[in-house]
Structure formats: structure tokens, C-alpha cells
């Protein structure tokens, strides 16, 4: 991997179309902006329409001439996921960036009754990817990139308690959702390879990047001291969102990215240029990947679109 890879190394993306979830702020906004700056047509998939419009305006100002628009997508509501996929307006899809996520929230449920972190971070993106998979498979050189976290190491999934109903611990639940992201990419890569497709499914993580992800839970619960601590950490310790987005951009655009690879910051997985990242062995389990996939199909009602899976 090239030492010091940065956004200026992104190959020309002219003629390519990208969808970025959670593109209204943080790493998602940077990812969308750099893809648009490099010539891609970018669809910002955002839960909040007004913030999506603000992101669209921001990108147009930063990258004059950028081809960018926003569309409503709430990953906590499978009906919204289905509506987004059904209304997808383009004839090709080169890049699907599954970026949106929530972290360490108090226990809650999505519109469909799933534990929020598992529902948003995994199930929403699982459904979205499978619904858009025909477009991806019809587009030569397409890629799916899911944003996981080094925090996946906090816990393997519990296939018997995917909604953390027995004992909810917010950081363990977050770790499980990030493990689910990696298992999803592992199983997707296995399936498309077995089907003879050239689609590349890869994963990335930002290290410690300064975004609003860290402060949302504290703000929700009015824990002002915790919110201040996270804010100080973001300003003093974390790398900026522009650096945190580089592993995602590398996985999405760099030549030679391998299926089921995991890219993160070079320096101890914390910060720095993109590099191959350590991942827990349980995230490469064919058995666990298949079991999670089947369970996710049952929970979402969205199934593998008819390819031979080996």
C-alpha cells in the first residue's frame, strides 16, 4: 500500500456513481465531498432532509461543478430503506459506501423493533445493499465499502440474542454491530466471488476521528460532563474527519483493493495514512457469516437476489 496515501491520490472518478449513507456530516460528508471532487456523481443518503440539503450546498461550494444531490434514507426504518432503493434514479451504481452509524446509545428500538445499534449499523445496511445489489452487479468494477470500527474487538455477535435483549451493555452492543459489519462484508465477498462476480466488498475504519458520533449519546441523556470530555478528546486527541475518511476512500477507489480487506489508519489503528488493519479472527468465520446472513434475511425480509452462493 502506498505510504502516505491521501485524497489527492484518488483516481479520476468521472462517469462513476456513488451512494454514501450518513453523508450529511463527519466522515460521510468528507467521503462524499472527495468523491464528488474527483468527478463522481454522488447521491447523499441522509436521514435528515434539511441537513442533507446543507451538505449538498457545502459540497457544491467546496467542489464547484460537482454532481451531487441528496435523498431521504432512514436506516432505522426498513420501509424507508425499501423506498430509497425503489426510487434509486440512476442506471448504474459503482460505489455503495455504508457509512452511517450510531454509537453507544441508551437502549432503544428501531421502527421495526430491532435494538437501535444493531438495526441501524447492520440491518439497515444489509437490507440496502441487497436491494441495490442488482445495480451493483450490473456495473463493472463496482465496490461496496462498509465502515466498521476497531471497537469490533469488544465483542463477537451473539446469534441467539442479536437484539441484546438479555443484557444490554451499550459498548458491547456497539462492538457487536461493528463485528456484524465485518461479517457481512466477509459473507458478501464470499458470495459474489462464488457467483463469479467482480464486485469488490471491503471494509474500513476511521480510527479515532473527530465527529459528532462520540457526543450524541451523552447529549441524548443530558450527560454534560461526558459530552465535554468527548468534545475535549475530539479536539486534542482525535484526528480530523478529513483524515478519518481516508481509509474509506482508499477502500472505495484505490487500485488493487482486495475483497474482504479491512483498511484503517496506519499508526496503531488510531491515526495516520490508510493501511491494512488488524481484525478479530471471528470476523472471518464462514459459519458465523452465513448464520448472520440467514438471520438478517429473516429479520429484514430482504433476501439474497438469486445468485449462486456456492
Quaternary state of the chains: single chain
Overall average residue pLDDT: 90
Portion in beta strands: 5-15%
- Total number of β-strand segments? 8
Radius of gyration: 18 Å
- Total DSSP helices: 10
C-alpha end-to-end distance: 31 Å
Compact overview of the structure:
The chain is of the alpha/beta class and 310 residues long. It has helices at residues 26-37, 49-62, 78-86, 116-137, 170-194, 216-220, 224-236, 241-244, 246-253, 286-300; strands spanning 17-21, 41-46, 67-72, 95-98, 143-147, 200-204, 262-267, 271-276. It is globular, with a radius of gyration of 18 Å.
List keywords for this structure.
single chain, 310 residues, alpha/beta, 14% strand, globular
Structural write-up:
It is globular and about 50 Å long. Strands 3-2-1-4-5-6-7-8 form an eight-stranded mixed beta sheet, with helices on both faces. Helix 1 (26-37) packs across helix 2 and helix 4 (116-137) packs parallel to helix 5. 51% of the residues are buried. The protein has ten helices and eight strands. The chain is α/β, with parallel strands linked by helices and 310 residues long.
